[in-house]
Amino acid sequence: MRRTRTSIAVLAAASLALTACGREDSAAGGEAQSEEIASGEATGTIDVWAMGTEGEVLEDFSAAFEEANPEADVKVTAVPWESAYDKLSGAIASGETPDVSLVGTTWMGEFAQAGGLMPTPENLVDESAFFPGAWESTEVGGTSYGVPWYVETRVLYYRTDLAEQAGWDEAPQTWDELKTFAQDLESKAGVEYGLNLQPGQTGSWQTVMPFAWSNGATLTNEDATEYTIDSPEMAEALDYYTSYFDEELSPTRLLDPGELETGFAKGTYGAFISGPWHTGLVEDAGVTQEQYTVAPMPGPDGAPGSSFVGGGDLVVFNDSDNADNAWKYVQWLSEAETQQAFYDEVGDLPAVQEAWETGELAEDPQLQVFGQQLENAESPPAVPTWEQVAGSIDSIVEQASKGDLPGDEAASQMQSEASSIGTGL
Prior knowledge:
Blueprint: H1 6-14, E1 44-51, H2 52-61, H3 63-68, E2 72-79, H4 81-94, E3 100-104, H5 108-113, H6 132-136, E4 139-140, E5 143-144, E6 147-153, E7 155-159, H7 160-165, H8 175-187, H9 205-214, H10 232-246, H11 259-266, E8 271-274, H12 278-284, E9 292-295, E10 307-316, H13 323-333, H14 336-346, E11 349-350, H15 360-363, H16 365-374, E12 377-378, H17 386-401, H18 407-421
Parallel strand pairs: 1-2, 1-3, 10-12
Antiparallel strand pairs: 3-10, 4-5, 6-10, 6-11, 7-8, 7-9
């Protein structure tokens, strides 16, 4: 399996500590989509900001676009992820944006609400070509403000050799089976913890919410004007999640960097939930490909479980000096052939489903698990206040994981704090 670059992991972490800012004189939501882009070749200079590995390779990769559009010149500025949010929000506030930028999926609501993003042209792409959860990350108040570029999702990792010792020759398919699986890994295979889950703190919502979504819980109403966190489905999912800590199936502390991977190799942890970047990390820690596998998230009753979908979206700014041609560049990056070529270049998982139908993406069994999971994955609501609400959820999950809050009280407290913050739409 080709190892996805750490830029995906950095994006997942960097997007968690951000707070809303931007211009207040315009708001997203309910806008008509942009006018259709003109036919013909792209022309002029297209200024692009991209982060991480994408920023390092994108200009050279774009030579194929320039060859097909001889009058176009793609100029890429590489921006470090740690400064990307401030740089983008400052550019929007000052009206000095590039034409195109990579934007973390959890930033979309803030930047659209700030008035910085141009709605996606109606004839740019076919929405159904993308994984549904990825496309939802571009929609703010019913309007799309970009196009998904690459994606990541979370699945179940487990040691197959230890699972066999515990009497399991296939992955658990339900919540009850997952609990028994973790118990058997401890009692029969000798692991210290059957399933490592995050006990609150920054980013824990990304592990908790797949259980809630699988159980039918929602975060907002359909038009994202109100939070809908307090529900029996959410409370039940929280009780199930925190039971792993109550029953000592998962450690109640956040692990140190590298501790999960070395513990997975030593057999301290029998299973965990994470994204595609972890395949390389566990193998670097000494786990052979014959000793572990990945599996889709189980649902509560045997139906496929949901997961979190993140990644990066491509946007064009309202202040772009070359918007029509910028959209043509985004359109090219959204073609299945281009997405597959970019996967070959850096390992980013394509957001376009057709790109998974040939080559390594279609043939590698582990990659196919991630592709299968992406068909049942959701993104958080693209609302301006999501980062604030996510931080609140993280804190409450930590309390619940310590046994200080039952699920119904935790869900009620999440709802109270989220309603106080509002969605911003």
